[in-house]
């Protein structure tokens, strides 16, 4: 029993009948007798006292090393400083360790849900005030120690709840290859500035495709590592099961270097307990441009989905077949349960995402942002109205699912485990499987305005994560590799990048990196499918 019973209890915190009201919210109307009511009120008041005591204790926040890594010229960019619409959240400079080797001379930007001490964070919304982290995310500290110069935070979509690039309250991000087209999301700004050659590497986060989708749309190499390989400490979470952080770059080598720099066990993040010791990985050093002896599966279900555009299908199939010329065995393979992926992810993400948005997430060890929680809670009519429809929809869906299907989450996670096991059995026979990253090239962006219909806001994003989201639930490593251009179905004179997704077994990042490096070393993707002579605004920056 709590030691707080040894001192007077503040029963004024709890009104008579509060216990009954709480139980009534879950349908229990006859659970407490009149004679028990007073004592349950006393017990409820006691736990409120404990809560108040915890809130009064000093928070535990690791100190940022601002002395070794001072933050220089921190500012919100002016319109003249912006790129590709509004790709930047904040610009600043943190100079990396000059003795660092892996990323020395590289510039890095961070998705605007990655904590940087002293830098306001928007998380793509104006529904809540920006908050200022007190410490750096683990990936920030590791990138600096590896020698990288961090040059800013870049726009992410509204609470990371979209794979389009027009939902951020801070502005639209345009595709660097064609103004007016989506850069993808939710790591929209980072992919745009990397694609445009303004920054070498972006560190993003992926919970349904948020690294791979913008990489596919913009023509970058984007890797979602195995769940737990890269620490998530200091990164705003949607759900611990789906949380993945990873690099976006213009080359496989830079992705491998960044993965070496930021991956490995973090004592603050229990998701990393199975990861190698920090500093021991050798992904970049071990890179070899060879797939000789590899067995690669072309996942039929990843190509035959009704949403997959024929030009995208042909482009990825052509890229896949080139592995045969490099010495790999390439075969078509079927896993019908792959098609259940979107449904499994949707239920899991809606329920867990809502719990996170409401401040009810639990069950993991770690260090969490109390500044973010304080800024976010409680939800009000005013703050809810400022959310983008995709974020509103997540909360509405999640609340309904939890109320009407209380056992659904457990079964969904069982099915997710079944699908994970099915993929793992496939990887006993195949080194990799591949498919289109996105079913179509970047669609036109939408200048959505508050008051527009929710369906008009959500429609451009529908179906984008058909092949990506399930690997966030199963935790398998997956990379988007640019393999050419295909015409936009909205305007065939506009040609946009096509991404091929390479998926490996758990902890098999090296196989993915080697295969991608081999393909990249023998193919110039920028010359494949390019016959568009239309003058576009942004290609001069590429």
Task: Report on the architecture of this protein.
This protein is of the alpha/beta class and 542 residues long. The chain folds into 2 domains: 54 residues, no CATH class; 395 residues, Amidase signature (AS) domain (Amidase signature (AS) enzymes). Helix content is 32%, strand content 15%. The strands form 2 sheets. A 12-stranded mixed β-sheet has the order 1-2-4-3-7-9-8-13-14-12-10-11, sandwiched between helices. A two-stranded antiparallel ribbon has the order 5-6. A hairpin with a 2-residue loop joins β5 and β6. The longest helix has 23 residues. It holds the Pfam family Amidase. It comes from Ophiobolus disseminans.
Which characteristics define this entry?
single chain, 542 residues, twelve-stranded mixed β-sheet, two-stranded antiparallel ribbon, 14 strands, globular
SSE layout:
Layout: H1 18-24, H2 34-56, E1 72-75, E2 88-94, E3 107-111, H3 138-145, E4 149-154, E5 174-175, E6 178-182, H4 188-195, E7 201-206, H5 212-218, E8 221-224, E9 244-249, H6 252-262, E10 295-299, H7 300-304, H8 310-325, E11 329-333, H9 341-357, H10 370-376, H11 381-385, H12 389-404, H13 408-429, E12 432-436, H14 454-458, H15 470-474, E13 478-487, E14 495-504, H16 509-522
Parallel strand pairs: 3-4, 3-7, 10-11, 10-12
Antiparallel strand pairs: 1-2, 2-4, 5-6, 7-9, 8-9, 8-13, 12-14, 13-14
Helix pairs in contact: 6-16, 9-12, 9-13
